[in-house]
Write a structure and sequence with these properties.
heterodimer, A: about 500 residues, mainly alpha, Sodium/glucose cotransporter, two-stranded antiparallel ribbon, 2 strands, about 70% helix, globular, B: about 70 residues, 3 helices, elongated
């Protein structure tokens, strides 16, 4: 067995032990309490939150997909930078408000808030179901990221197309998430991100020495793009400007309304912790930018593959000694386990709190039991999903998930600032947005660029973003209509002071 | 408008700086061999962190976030 394989196994086992031990880490109350199991007791300070949220948002799949896109499509891959830059000024306005109202009212999901704010059970259900469905393919993509590494390692890891290794990793993941709740990924995130930062820093040092500095890497990439069947350059073609900007903006607006983002934000112990993290998390974006450049380094290294997703592991195998390649592979595998655990918890929270809600005296322990079992179900479902279908479909579904989660924006995000909308109008806007987003996704074969024909011109942009605009227009137009039709609104269970 | 509300405009800076590639889609001037398009966007990761840190500093006290 290669040194890289041994190091990978040792690190993954170490992380598993840590995952189980996390049950006792900083524990104050019983893990049967929903706040303790699902949100780590809402007790995380700036540093733990930084690792947890960063480990949650910058997933293993990102580490594989962004460089793959850079390798295959060039400059457009760098939309990942504006995307993860503008998410934070948006987050600092929205998430601090949400954190405060959630802390005061004890919410664990965005749908909890929407229910109280608009007093509408159907809207709550729409939010919850959208969240669960959007998060499932996202978990599946983490498995796709792991699979890429297992295939690179070959041997027993690649047995059955990597299925065995995937199944073992996911059973372990499900087991410690069940036992320790959010504390498991929070503790593992330290290891994950230490390994990731170490890998990226070493990779950047290595590639700039091996391929003639940045000038050499860009020179090689530029020549390769020019020589392709559809020639490209190191710059965006002007017609792609709007698609680039709208893709970045649309993705950024969706980022923090995903259930797993909500989960890791609500685990912060104070509003100040959330604020500080918005200023500190862009460090991860810088790392992501360098990671994207690894796609160009792959070109300079002469890597030829029909599956661009293999570029990063192939590059690591080429530039690192075998043992350190093992560290880098472990970084990707563990980098998949952390967000997968948080996503499973976030999805399970929605199910337990907003879909199967039990009104009983022991609501808390019942909810926790439901959520814990659902975590196992969600992990199993994601595993089957990845084994059964081709990665291409998993990516397509994840794109759809992004389109759908964005349709919860008006009720959740705008709802944090105003209650002007009629809940039935929001529900109608949501439905129209889901249908339009799905239609555009199918039309464009699950790619970002949808040509919108409007007033005789064509504007190529991010389909889900157009769907959101349509959703907003419908919600705005329908609100006075529903009001006039005497559609009664539920009461607002929150007060203005809850948001500060 | 409260003092805090005006400072919210500061949050628009990263949006304006990065969402319109027509303003930075160029090769020159390069930095360490990296075309402008690339290092400009990389630099804004740090830039937006600084903008947010300033925002937090100037709006403290405007909100009840002493918790």
């Amino acid at each position: 067995m290669h040194a890289s394989s041994i190091i990978l196994i040792v690190l993954v086992l170490a992380v598993t032990v840590l995952g189980f031990a996390a049950a006792r880490w900083r524990s104050a109350g019983s893990l049967a309490n929903m706040d303790e199991w699902a949100l780590g007791g809402r007790s995380f300070g700036t540093v733990i939150s930084w690792f947890l949220i960063g480990g949650d948002l910058y997933t293993a799949y990102t580490f594989i997909a962004v460089p793959a896109l850079a390798y295959a499509a060039g400059p457009v891959a760098f939309f990942a930078l504006p995307y993860t830059i503008v998410a934070y000024p948006f987050g600092i306005l929205v998430l601090t408000r949400f954190w405060s109202v959630a802390r005061t009212r004890g919410y664990i999901t965005a749908a909890d808030f929407v229910r109280d704010r608009f007093g509408d059970r159907w809207l709550e259900l729409a939010m919850a179901i959208t969240g669960v469905i959007a998060v499932l393919p996202y978990i599946a993509l983490q498995l796709v990221g792991m699979k890429v590494v297992f295939l690179q390692l070959g041997g027993v890891f690649a047995a059955g197309g990597g299925t065995l290794a995937l199944a073992i990793s996911f059973v372990l993941l499900a087991a410690y998430t069940y036992t320790s709740g959010l504390r498991a990924p929070a503790l593992i995130a330290f290891i994950k991100d230490t390994l990731i930062y170490l890998t990226i820093i070493c990779a950047v040092i290595a590639i700039t020495h091996m391929f003639g500095g940045w000038a050499g890497i860009f020179d090689a990439a530029g020549k390769a793009f020019a020589a392709r069947p559809k020639p490209g350059t190191l710059l965006l073609p002007p017609p792609a400007y709007f698609a680039y900007g709208s893709l970045a903006l649309g993705s950024a607006l969706a980022l923090f309304i995903y259930p797993h983002s909500i989960t890791s934000i609500l685990a912060a112990k104070s509003r100040t912790v959330v604020q500080r993290n918005m200023a500190l998390l862009p460090i991860y974006s810088l790392m992501l930018g360098f990671l994207a450049l690894l796609g160009y380094a792959g070109i300079a290294a002469g890597i030829k593959t029909t599956n661009p997703q293999q570029v990063v592991p192939m590059l690591f195998a080429q530039i690192f000694p075998d043992w350190f390649a093992g560290v880098a592979y472990a970084a990707i595998v563990i980098g998949a386990l952390v967000p997968a655990a948080i996503m499973a918890i976030g999805g399970a929270n929605l199910f337990a709190s907003n879909i199967f809600r039990q009104f009983s005296a022991q609501r808390d322990s019942l909810e926790t039991r439901t959520a814990k079992i659902l975590t196992l179900v969600i992990c199993l479902f994601a595993l089957i999903f990845v084994i059964m279908i081709t990665p291409q479909y998993a990516i397509g579904f994840q794109f759809l998930g992004g389109a759908w989660i964005l349709q919860t924006f008006p009720a959740f995000v705008i709802g944090l600032f105003t209650r002007w909308f009629n809940p039935k109008a929001l529900l109608l806007g949501w439905a129209v947005g889901i249908v339009a987003g799905t239609y555009m996704a199918i039309q464009t074969n699950f790619t970002a660029a949808f040509p919108l024909h409007l007033f005789g011109g064509t504007l190529v942009g991010y389909g889900p973003f157009y769907a959101l605009l349509l959703n907003l227009v419908v919600s705005i137009v329908a609100t006075p209509l529903f009001n006039a039709a005497g559609n009664t609104r539920g009461a607002d269970a929150t007060t203005a002071g809850d948001y500060a | 408008m409260k003092r805090t509300a005006w400072w919210n405009l500061l949050l628009l800076v990263p949006f304006v700086a990065t969402l319109f590639p027509q303003f930075y889609n160029q090769l020159n001037p390069p930095l360490f061999g990296m075309p402008f398009f690339y290092w400009y966007q990389l630099a804004w990761t740090i830039g937006s962190g600084v903008v947010l840190a300033i925002y937090i500093a100037v709006t403290r006290g405007g909100t009840s976030d002493a918790r």
